[in-house]
Amino acid sequence: MRPIRPALAAVGLTAVLALAATACGPGDDNAGSKPSSSASSSDGIQIPDDIKERLKEHGFDLDKWKNGEWKNWDRDKWLREAQDFINPIIDGLWDPDRMKGADKQPQKPVANDISGDKGVTDPTPAPVNAQALSSPYHSSLPALGKILFDTPEGSAVCSGTVVKDPAHPGKSNLVWTAGHCVHAGAKGGWYRNIAFVPSYNDGGKTAAQLPKPTREQLAPYGVFWANGALTSDQWIAGGGPTGGQGAPYDFAVLHVTPEKGSTKSLEETTGSAVAVDFNAPAVPKIASMSANGYPAAAPFDGQKLFRCVDKPGRLSIVQNDPTMYRLGCTMTGGSSGGGWLTSGQDGQPTLVSNTSIGPVTAGWLAGPRLGKEAKDVYEAESKKFANQ
Q1: What is the pTM of this model?
Q2: Where is the composition biased (Basic and acidic residues) (predicted)?
Q3: 251 within some domain
């Protein structure tokens, strides 16, 4: 599984700008502002002048980037600051073979026993065997999907959930996932070529049953590229490859746009988006919670959607930081970022957390309890694209 980033005393937001072929132009910290002019590449991508100049400052040429320059992970080429994020659509990059083969995870497991951590921690839960969801996934959990991205070690995967957008009711393009699925933390920067595939492998076939998968099999509702993202400053400032103090703030929100120029939003495409609860009840008052995702590390193959249902317990990483939720679950790496759902006041599924860390033995998972910091990230990402 993957661990998380250390939390700092002060909580903040890290805004992300991205270039996308179908976007009018990336937002910036001044929501609603528009550049006075823009330059276009030969394939029609609109690049606002201020963004283009920023890319030049870092020595990037968009055409070279799309032709493979993105594979350059030199320290001075690995952008980490908010205003430096670039994620231009590279049409066809995520072809079926590359989607199927993206099974690495960006971080490593935590120790099996972290009982020495200070704070409020309940006994380690008994493992709960992950159960495969029935296919087609679009009928059972249409808001779930797989997140694909590139790292210095190769292509990697996480899981994500389509969530409602207060700025665009019924037409959301927001995806909830883990912070470590978009940013490497203290010793790195933003991952690249980040994309979301709703209802990935909708038919629920195994890797062996997909020797030569088609795009329709793996991405029946298309591929959506991130043209915006937000995560907490804690993860960016202190996140590490084996977790850390930032776990209670390991969340991120992506804004996506279709690779193939569709006019439909992600929510309209999938027919589903779940609400996010930033004031979920205390652990003793929650009867059960489900963790959902596409586990890719053995014994799973990354192609099928699984779920664990358990009554949550509490896990404390740092005494003065928020206590996390913890569930018994045998899911492995790849399920990170997947939504933790419970029944909301209206009886509908509501997102209350996301998979963040887990042990080598894959017997449990932990996720952040979403509070003010998570709400700030969510609302800022919604506001950023409110006028688009």
Answers
A1: 0.86
A2: 96-106
A3: yes
Instruction: Give me 368's structure tokens.
Output: 């952040």
Q: What is the dihedral of CA 327, 3, 227, 376, to 10 degrees?
A: 70
Phi, psi torsion values for 237, nearest 5 degrees: -80, -30
Rounded Cα distance, 11 and 245, in Å? 13
Would residue 12 be called left, alpha or beta, if left means φ above 0 and alpha means ψ between -120 and 50 degrees?
beta
Q: Which residues, at least 6 apart from 172, have a Cβ–Cβ distance to it below 8 Å?
A: 162, 163, 164, 165, 265, 266, 267, 273
- The number of residues making up the chain comes to 388
**Mapping DSSP to helix (H, G, I), strand (E, B) and coil, where does residue 17 land?**
strand
Q: What's the domain range around 198?
A: 13-384
> CA-to-CA distance for 88 and 98, rounded, in angstroms?
18
First CA to last CA across the chain, in angstroms? Answer: 36
Do the strands 131-132 and 289-293 form a parallel or antiparallel pair, or are they unpaired? unpaired
The number of folded domains in the chain is: 1
Residue among 83, 98, 91 at smallest CA distance from 29? 83
CATH number of the domain within which 113 lies:
2.40.10.120
Fill in the amino acid letter for 227: N
Residue 144 carries which DSSP code? Answer: E
Sign of CA dihedral 94, 230, 54, 75: negative
pLDDT, tens digit, 9 for 90 and up, residues 95-153: 999 999 997 777 655 655 554 455 688 999 999 999 999 999 999 999 999 999 999 99
**Domain assignment present for 1:** no
